[in-house]
Amino acid sequence: MSDDERVYSEDDDMMVDDEETALEIAALQDDETLIQRKKEFINHKAALSTLVEEISQKNLDWVQRCDITSMSPLVVENTEDDLDRELKFYQQALEAVTRAKSNIKEAGIPFSRPDDYFAEMVKSDSQMARIRQKLLDQQKSIQNSEEAKKQRQLRKYGKQIQQEKIKEREDKKKAALDKIAAVKKRLRNANAGDDDDFDIDVNSDDEVKPGSGFVGKSKNGRPLPNKKRQIKNAKFGFGGKKRGLKKNTAASTDDMSGFSVKRNKGSEFTGASKKGKAKRPGKTKRQRTN
């Protein structure tokens, strides 16, 4: 860059700076001299009343206007309470609807939709079917969750009942074992010739309980089983010792009541030889005979 060009560029920069400074000074002077005027509001009551009369619909019937003014003022104590505020709006709207319905009935104008009136649906049938299926799925999921919750509660209650039953059985078993232990202790301490000491009833209840399988008491005071049980006891026994029941004793050896000569005729006891049908010879022996 030559010296002349450098001088011209510096002169241009100085001119631009001078113009900006002048503009800033002029703007500051205009702000100082500017008068802030306040906007005035004028209430022209006569003009407003005239406009209200022009747009008034007092001469029209109520059916054409359909305006309802609430008879009771809307009073909301706490405007921040959404529930109370919405409830007051609902009550006011319900009052207006009731009054409007009575006015329409007085005017004789039908306002209900006829039964044979079919309007075109905004949504298609397929979309409504999807919405319906979605609602059904939601309802089913809610029912399933409620049923699962109910089942959990029932399981919890059933477990509690089961624990109570187990505890009751254990208590009964313990009481029975205590009674048996007391009886055994008394029997050990009793004399062998004293019959009264052996007449002990383990059950504390004197009366026979209905449905227990007993029909009465024996001579020694013990409960008697029913007839069916007595027959089975006579046939099969009462339990107890099983070993050595078929073992011969002196009494069973001397007992000859079950011996029959006719049945044992021809046996080794009588000394008679065994006679029976001759056996068929074998195949080889038959071939030799032929």
The profile of the biggest β sheet is: 2 strands, antiparallel
* Low-pLDDT segments, ≥5 res: 3-8, 192-206
C-alpha geometry = elongated
Strand content: under 5%
Helix-strand string: HHHHHEEHHH
Q: Note the total helix count.
A: 8
What is the CA–CA distance across the termini?
Answer: 157 Å
| Helix/sheet category | mainly alpha
The total strand number stands at: 2
Percentage of helical residues?
A: 40-55%
The average pLDDT value, as a whole number, equals 77
Structure summary:
The chain has 290 residues and is mainly alpha-helical.
Describe the structure.
With 290 residues, the chain is mainly alpha-helical. Helix content is 55%, strand content 2%. The chain contains eight helices and two strands.
SSE blueprint:
Elements: H1 3-33, H2 45-55, H3 62-65, H4 82-107, H5 125-189, E1 214-217, E2 223-225, H6 227-236, H7 250-254, H8 283-289
Antiparallel strand pairs: 1-2
Structural key phrases:
single chain, 290 residues, mainly alpha, two-stranded antiparallel sheet, 8 helices, elongated, disordered N terminus
